[in-house]
Amino acid sequence: MAEKSADKKKLILQTAFQLFSTKGARATSMQEIAELCGISKGSLYLQFKSKEELELDVCSYCYKIFEDKFMQVDEDKDLSPKDRLRKQLAVLLSQVMELREYLIMQFLDFAGSGKMPTQPDSVRQNNIKLIKMVEVKLKQIYGPEITPYTGDLLLLIHGMLGSYIRLLLMPQLPLPFERIPDHLLGLLDSTAETYMRTAPAPLIPDDAVIRWMEQDAFSFPKTPRHPLLVIKQIKHELQQADIEAHLRDEANESLSILEEEMIEPKPRRAILQGMLHNLKPLQEQTDLKDSYEELEQMVTLHLLPERDR
């Protein structure tokens, strides 16, 4: 029974991944995923309590494939530390190319909503583990004298890889990803040699990168969005939501009134409060709950006296 449930969950993850890769998570409904899996929507919700949970698990599913390949390289003791690092960089970039459409749609969803995709905590913790592995390799490659500069080198790797990956996702800028590992290792060699020869004071403490990652410092700051952006997102989500037609129509009407009021220099408190009250049923809808609560929070700020904002 447990094996059958695991197979069903894997089918759902694979189906969701394909849909997220072709049309994006925002434009994919739970109903659509259920239909393509040949199961009921209720059965889907038995496996995943919400669409957000499914999105997080798809992200973890993709990361697990990469992590397994990465760890296989680390177990190859016939390779030198530098060759293992080179091969692991190649594994990372090859996986980016395999997931290219999925990653592009993730960024397009972010551009449309202004909300950065949430990273599962398990992925963040595993990223920290991988960074620590790379730190050990740097000391094996360059010797213990590189220790004061591992923070600088880790930040260099992190920043360069992030830039390369963004370029790989831009079809108008073809980048020979097979050459990137050697190119990056050449930069590391030159930088490490300069550090050890000139012995400057390190800019980044050797443990700072890991401490920052533990604090999730590499994620985008969570700045509030303008209510108009949230309204636009809810209107889009309403088109996909499985709710009664009259509730959808009433919500769209209230959102339009709220939208018109929010562009006024001084929105009227009674209108804001009334439209929020009308939209309250959205909080009961799994696919709309998070967006409604974000809208409620943003609009409530406009209801506060200016001295309290």
Q: What fraction of residues sit in β-strands?
A: under 5%
Q: Determine the N-to-C terminus distance.
A: 54 Å
Structural class: mainly alpha
Order of helices and strands: HHHHHHHHHHHHHH
Radius of gyration: 24 Å
Indicate the mean pLDDT.
85
The backbone outline, from C-alpha atoms, is elongated
Total domains:
3
- The low-pLDDT segments are 217-221
Tally the helices: what do you get? 14
**Which percent bin holds the helix content?**
over 70%
- Largest sheet report: none
How many strands appear in the DSSP assignment? 0
Structural overview:
The protein has three domains: 49 residues, Arc Repressor Mutant, subunit A (Orthogonal Bundle); 155 residues; 82 residues, no CATH class. With 309 residues, the protein is mostly helical. The protein starts with a helix and ends in a 6-residue tail after the last helix. It has 14 helices and no strands. About 2% of the residues have low confidence. Helices cover 71% and strands 0% of the residues.
